[in-house]
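Everyone, carefully examine this protein record:
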Amino acid sequence: MSIWFYLFWIVLCISIFLIIKIWIMREEFKNIEESLSNIINTDTNNLITVSSNDKELKRLATDLNKSLKELRKLELEYKNGNKELKSSITNISHDLRTPLTAIRGYLDLMDNSNLDSKQIKYLEIIDSKVKDLTSLTEQLFDFSRGLDIKETMEKENICINNVLEETLVSFYGVFMSHNITPNIDICAEKVFRLLNGNIVKRIFENIISNAIKYSESCFKVKMYCDGTIEFSNKTTMIDSTSLEKMFDRYYTVQSAKKSTGIGLSIAKQLVDLSGGTIEAQYNKNILKIRIVFEKDLNVIRNRN
């Protein structure tokens, strides 16, 4: 036999070996990819394993496992830090409530005293500032509860019209005290969505409260049949910068007399968790907050 015959079989064997080797490596890479995806997307402490004896594959698995351990460490630190932040905010809000309640009590006692006009004026200013601080304290506490709201979000098929109407009715006294006659236009067709009713109510409450506090005249609510709700009010406190940052967690819009709280950032967080969208527009001194709750195709509309 010629040397070419032996060379042919040698090359053939090497080719078969390499093909098998490549196939095994592809399968290992596929397994690594699936394992990595499963580990990242689930709460598990599993690590990536390989059955091949290939040194490079084992080195790759080792490096990935090191990165996963570091990622888990960072995630744990983040969760612990988030819990500590929530606990700190809650404790601060509780600590502020006690002295604020005491101050309000003394202010009420002073109302019955014989005060001159200047003292009464100063007293009214103090009372107004205490009310503002009390409101911000309540928002701070509400924000701390919103940090882990995802854990308690149970959804059901709710009628958004009814939730909006009930929320607006609950603000009747506040509207009257601020001399606001709201312009309300809610579609006759019932709009159902798979949402948490309490969360939706809190969203509406935060937006309405914010509008009442900083509205300079009109307040309008309009709901469409597609699940879009628009809240609008007149204000001169907004500019292009504040509009872009309006929903930021720690951003406040300030003027000489007022500063907005964190109600809108809470509303955005809750809308995002509910799978909706929220946006702000400002034109000719009219601030418009638009919320859209998209229809879930899996929800069957109940007209009864």
The mean pLDDT is 78.
